[in-house]
Specification:
two-stranded antiparallel ribbon, 53% helix, 11% strand, elongated
């Protein structure tokens, strides 16, 4: 029995030892699991921190990308501005060269004029005894003063103090063009900010004896250059020989009674009020056009080749400085072009409140094609001479009929009459 009891104890002790080993193993495994859990928590915390850092870096990168995009857009704008400025610089260099050449030409011309002045002084002294005559009047002595048929008053041009073919040609040219020269009063006073914006712009002064004062009608311009004879902006679809020779593809024809800030002589800078109706998107980018300005009804003067671009619209104060007739006319233009259903008075009130603002376009002269002006003037003189000859023949016929009906002795007399038709 004692032996059985010992075996039982030994077996039980063995089981306890085995259980202890298992408990020890389980404890080790539990410890390892706890360490693994601790490591996993640590790794998760590290991963979370890394994710937070990545999110922060991502947000920073997005901000940097937006800044780079803004900088890129600004760079593109700066590049465009640089190109425009470079173009302006080239134009300015060309203008400076042209001005220098013209200054040299003017200096030579002044020297020639001094010599001509001295020569003319001697000629005037020698011609002091020459009797003045009237061109267009019979110089043969008559017993009594004569009158024209039906008591018609004929234009008389005073004769020269000196004789000679060159002076006669000058007088003929003056007669042929004088009817197309219109005296232009200075433009309405520019507001100081507008004046400052153009007062430093160099003026192109053409080297012409008549300073480019001969005017042309819209139909005349259309016939000899091309384009329409009505619209303000005339694009030339079928260019005439003059347009092809001088590279003209378009021209502008504003007038002073609607655009009183326009140039009034070739080469001047100025402004025009263009941008209503279909023209609302015109001149937002600079454009280059030949410019004719209407200085009187049916009379347009060539001002030169101009750079044209939109500037700030007129303020209420600037609108109120315009003459009342100009404002009324512009309100009518607004009503027509913008298809505004309000009355002219209502549109004027809208301009006075600042609800409507007049678009303003700056005009800067780049050059003046003197040869183009001379060609147009020559065509005008040829046309005027043709019309004048036709008029002279008609007057001669009427005079002959009148003298015949009054049974007077026929006296041969040529009366020069300068009548200029309007295109």
């Amino acid at each position: 029995m004692a032996h059985d009891g010992n075996e039982y104890l030994i077996e039980t002790l063995g089981q306890l030892v085995g259980a202890k080993k298992e408990a020890t193993a389980l404890h080790g495994r539990l410890t390892n699991l706890q360490e693994a859990l601790t490591e996993r928590d640590r790794l998760n915390a590290l991963k979370q921190n890394e994710n937070d850092e990545l999110r922060i870096r991502n947000a920073k990168l997005e901000l940097d990308m937006m800044q780079l995009q803004n900088a890129n857009a600004a760079l593109r704008l700066a590049t465009k501005d640089h190109d425009v400025l470079r173009e302006l610089l080239e134009v300015t260099k060309m203008d400076v060269t042209t001005q220098q050449q013209r200054a040299n030409t003017l200096e030579q011309r002044l020297h020639q004029l001094d010599q001509e002045k001295n020569t003319l002084a001697h000629e005037l002294q020698a011609a002091a005894q020459i009797v003045r005559v009237d061109i267009g009047v019979n110089t043969n002595p008559l017993p009594t003063p004569r009158t024209t048929p039906n008591d018609m008053n004929l234009p008389v041009v005073r004769g020269p103090l000196t004789a000679g073919p060159s002076r006669e040609r000058n007088l003929k040219e003056e007669r042929d063009t004088s009817a197309d020269i219109v005296v232009v009063h200075p433009p309405s006073r520019l507001p100081p900010p507008r004046k400052r914006a153009i007062e430093n712009v160099p003026q192109i002064i053409p080297d012409l004896p008549d300073s480019g004062t001969v005017c042309f009608t819209r139909p005349f311009i259309s016939i000899h250059i091309g384009g329409g004879s009505q619209s303000l902006i005339s694009n030339i679809a079928a260019p005439k020989p003059l347009a092809l020779k001088f590279g003209i593809t378009s021209y502008l024809c504003p007038n002073l009674w609607e655009n009183p800030w326009c140039p009034t002589s070739p080469g001047m800078a100025g402004y025009m009020f263009v941008g209503l109706g279909e023209e609302i998107h015109k001149f937002l980018q600079p454009e280059v056009h030949e410019l004719f300005v209407g200085v009187a009804k049916t009379n347009y003067r060539l001002m030169g080749r101009y750079r044209v671009h939109r500037v700030e619209p007129l303020t209420v104060e600037e609108w109120l400085t315009l003459p009342e007739k100009v404002r009324s006319k512009y309100c009518e233009t607004t009503q027509r072009k913008a298809k505004d259903s309000r009355s002219v008075e209502g549109i004027n009130a809208a301009y006075e409140r600042g609800e409507l603002r007049v678009p303003c376009v700056k005009l800067t002269c780049l050059d003046f094609k003197e040869d183009l002006y001379k060609k147009l003037k020559a065509q005008k003189m040829e046309q005027n001479n043709t019309n004048s000859l036709s008029s002279q023949r008609s007057i001669k016929q009427e005079s002959a009929v009148m003298r015949s009906s009054q049974k007077r002795p026929r006296i041969e007399e040529t009366i020069n009459v300068d009548e200029f038709s309007v295109d």
